[in-house]
Amino acid sequence: MGVNQLSRLYGDKPAVDRVSFDVERSEVFGFLGPNGAGKTTTIKMLTTLLQPTSGGANVLGFDLKTEGRKIRERIGVVQQQDSFDQGLNVETSLDIYGLIWNVPRTERKTRIEEVIARFGMEEFRKMPTVDLSAGQRRRVQVAREFIHDMDLLFLDEPTVGLDPIVRRALLDYLKERVHKGLTIFFTTHILEEAEYLCDRIAVINQGRIVQIDTPENLKRRFGSARAVEFKLLQGSSEALASALSSSADVTRLVQDSGTGAYRVTTTRPESVIPEIYRLAERHAVTVSSIYIAETTLEDAFIHMVTDDENGRETERGLG
Ligand SMILES: Nc1ncnc2c1ncn2[C@@H]1O[C@H](COP(=O)(O)OP(=O)(O)OP(=O)(O)O)[C@@H](O)[C@H]1O
Ligand SMILES: [Mg+2]
């Protein structure tokens, strides 16, 4: 999929502002951004539910402007808000969805059984969707998309309301499908989940793409320095602390007054750790616990968005 300068205005306010990116085949492409960033608007345009104001896209080899019907035949979409015929029971609802997609009867049966098993929907398969809990309803909504064939799947916050076990089952199921050739366009506010699933991530803020990279690279480029935390059996050691603070690899050293744990901010934990042990020996104290606090994607995300906001402030200030 290739997206080129795609834009959507509401009134004169751009919700999506000249967005360009490519998604490879069999890739999970994450689309992350704060509330109101333009994620859903982008998905609506790429799934032909909403007309772009300008720009275009090639989706699965078809032109977004002129070949909408062909695109709709080859994609799946789970929208952010739910859409159901509330009266039907789960099984019938899944079956009718397959029928709409012209999936043959026997194939529908097989796939319904598969999703019921994979999404743990056994105990409520005969219940009307109207009586389901919010998370159960979300499960049905995501599951039904797998009743039909598709090459590209758009998921707009599919895991909202799912419990951790079902969430993990869904993510693993998605991975399996990607392995077999499915391409996924995915939005979420849960950054651990994005990191678990996505090959690449685009960060969007106020309608504009801020960064596109792998989760690893985003963490490396935008995560803050890492931290090493350790405790001493003896509680504190003035001598060790003052020697460690003056080490070249240590950016900052603080001691938590409550727990007594030392926290070292550093870009090189691999050299700081042996240094801590050396100093402990020299000053006759014992390290009772030590660990590296890793930088998280959430941390990197907050930096990217904050930097972008600050950049805009400066731009406005100068303009
Ligand atoms: N129908 C509409 N009319 C006017 N403005 C709209 C409309 N739909 C969306 N917007 C505005 O467009 C911007 C982008 O909205 P969008 O729903 O794409 O955000 P999002 O990134 O999906 O956010 P969230 O994380 O909350 O789902 C927002 O400022 C929103 O208020
Ligand atoms: Mg949205």
Question: What secondary-structure arrangement, pairings included, does this model have?
Answer:
Layout: E1 2-10, E2 13-22, E3 28-32, H1 39-46, E4 54-59, E5 62-63, H2 68-74, E6 75-78, H3 90-100, H4 105-118, H5 134-144, E7 152-156, H6 164-179, E8 183-187, H7 191-197, E9 200-205, E10 208-213, H8 215-222, E11 226-232, H9 238-245, E12 250-255, E13 262-266, H10 269-282, E14 287-293, H11 297-318
Parallel strand pairs: 3-8, 3-9, 6-7, 7-8
Antiparallel strand pairs: 1-2, 1-4, 4-5, 9-10, 11-13, 11-14, 12-13
Protein described:
The chain has 319 residues and is an alpha/beta fold. The protein has 2 domains: 2-214, 3-Layer(aba) Sandwich (Rossmann fold), CATH 3.40.50; 225-293, 2-Layer Sandwich (Alpha-Beta Plaits). It is 39% helix and 26% strand. It has 11 helices and 14 strands. The chain has helices at 39-46, 68-74, 90-100, 105-118, 134-144, 164-179, 191-197, 215-222, 238-245, 269-282, 297-318; strands at residues 2-10, 13-22, 28-32, 54-59, 62-63, 75-78, 152-156, 183-187, 200-205, 208-213, 226-232, 250-255, 262-266, 287-293. The strands form 3 sheets. A 6-stranded mixed β-sheet has the order 6-7-8-3-9-10, with helices on both faces. A 4-stranded antiparallel β-sheet has the order 2-1-4-5, covered by helices on one side. A 4-stranded antiparallel β-sheet has the order 12-13-11-14, covered by helices on one side. Strand 4 (54-59) and strand 5 (62-63) form a beta hairpin. Helix 3 packs across helix 4 (105-118) and helix 8 (215-222) packs across helix 11 (297-318). The chain is globular, with a radius of gyration of 25 Å. The two termini are 36 Å apart. The mean pLDDT is 94. The protein binds adenosine-5'-triphosphate and magnesium ion (MG).
